[in-house]
């Protein structure tokens, strides 16, 4: 009687766990598919920066389709029953796609860093081709990290497989893979975000506020990106020419200058708001990435270095799925904190016609 109750309890737990992980997997598929569809169908989002975001969504979609479903079976059953070949393919896909997802965050941060610190020059080089090369480099690094275990796992292909794990006895590979897939990218992300934050704050603080003295026309030209303003301002001779050539009164000219100041001021306020939001979004993504992946990679490194150290299998599963959860969080953050994505996403949901 007690044994049957215990079996029923275990079965109930397995079903509940399967449903929970299934919901997470389905939500990851759906959210990333919507981000991809939103970028593809919205012409306004066809930019190099959004191409990188779309590529990240494709990578996270691959994690949710090719890695997470098999991981559900393995996590719930606690034993591997799919054979050596499927194990090799699954582990390689897991390492490749998860590493690519992490490295995509690096190239997105790098693109953002160049765009905010060298805006004029980088805008000329910020092309789809350049974005494609960056994505190509991400995949080359990811594949180079996932391939080595295939060579020494073949030696055990004839043995009956009961578990499917990367062999942490190969300490050199563990160091290579963990540092290449997580620790080095994390340091790079923290440095880039720190510099982006400082650059964004300095630009925001340079923005004129609505209160205080109005800017002169010459000041507006120096701080504005638009050269078309030059026809309206700059020297007293030009102002005199406006008076004499058009017969306009000083009151009219001052009115034009005030309207010009308001126009540039409003544009700068909008730019500042966009800078703040973009920096905040990147910060949230960085924070979520570290929270999701740090436990897994710390656990992997500790297990490899300290042979006496041991983590409970349940804890290992929690760390693994916390890492997978990052593939769900990325598209959610972009749709929640990016106004362009939010508007296009709403149009997609409502089946409106895209511009």
TrEMBL record:
Superkingdom of the source species: Eukaryota
Keywords: Cell membrane, Disulfide bond, G-protein coupled receptor, Glycoprotein, Membrane, Receptor, Transducer, Transmembrane, Transmembrane helix
Domain G-protein coupled receptors family 1 profile: from-to ranges: 31-334
Keyword Chloroplast annotated: no
Keyword DNA repair: no
Transmembrane segments: 20-41, 53-77, 89-110, 131-151, 171-198, 284-306, 318-337
Recorded topology in the membrane: Multi-pass membrane protein
GO cellular component: plasma membrane; synapse
Subcellular location: Cell membrane
Gene Ontology biological-process annotations: adenylate cyclase-activating adrenergic receptor signaling pathway; chemical synaptic transmission; positive regulation of MAPK cascade; regulation of behavior; regulation of locomotion; smooth muscle contraction; vasoconstriction
Gene Ontology molecular function terms on file: G protein-coupled serotonin receptor activity
InterPro entries on file: 5HT1D_rcpt, 5HT_rcpt, GPCR_Rhodpsn, GPCR_Rhodpsn_7TM
Similarity comment: family membership: Belongs to the G-protein coupled receptor 1 family.
Protein name from the UniProt record: 5-hydroxytryptamine receptor 1D
Annotated source species: Hippocampus comes
């Amino acid at each position: 009687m007690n044994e049957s109750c215990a079996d029923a309890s275990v079965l109930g737990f397995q079903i509940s766990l399967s449903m929970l992980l299934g919901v997470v997997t389905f939500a990851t598929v759906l959210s990333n598919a919507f981000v991809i569809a939103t970028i593809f169908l919205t012409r306004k989002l066809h930019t190099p920066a959004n191409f990188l975001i779309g590529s990240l969504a494709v990578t996270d979609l691959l994690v949710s389709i090719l890695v997470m479903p098999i991981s559900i079976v393995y996590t719930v059953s606690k034993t591997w029953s799919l054979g050596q070949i499927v194990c090799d393919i699954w582990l390689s896909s897991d390492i490749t796609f998860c590493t690519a997802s992490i490295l995509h965050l690096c190239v997105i941060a790098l693109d953002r860093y160049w765009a905010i610190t060298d805006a004029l020059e980088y805008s000329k080089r910020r092309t789809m081709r350049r974005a494609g090369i960056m994505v190509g480099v991400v995949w080359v690094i990811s594949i180079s990290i996932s391939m080595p275990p295939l060579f020494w796992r073949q030696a055990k292909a004839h043995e009956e497989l009961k578990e499917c794990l990367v062999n942490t006895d190969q300490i050199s590979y563990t160091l290579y893979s963990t540092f290449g897939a997580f620790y080095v990218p994390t340091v790079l992300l923290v440095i880039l975000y720190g510099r982006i934050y400082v650059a964004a704050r300095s630009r925001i603080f340079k923005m004129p506020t609505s209160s205080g003295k109005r800017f002169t026309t010459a000041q507006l030209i120096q701080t504005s990106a638009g050269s078309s303003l030059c026809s309206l301002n700059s020297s007293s001779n030009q102002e005199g020419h406006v008076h004499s050539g058009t017969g306009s009164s000083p009151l009219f000219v001052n009115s034009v200058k005030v309207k010009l100041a308001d126009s540039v001021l409003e544009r700068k306020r909008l730019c500042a708001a966009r800078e703040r939001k973009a920096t905040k979004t990147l910060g949230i993504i960085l924070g979520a990435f570290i929270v999701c992946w740090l436990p897994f990679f710390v656990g992997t490194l500790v297990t490899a270095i300290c042979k006496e150290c041991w983590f409970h299998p349940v804890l290992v599963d929690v760390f693994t799925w916390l890492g997978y959860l990052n593939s769900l969080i990325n598209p959610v953050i972009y749709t929640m904190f990016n106004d362009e994505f939010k508007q296009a996403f709403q149009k997609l949901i409502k089946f409106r016609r895209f511009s």
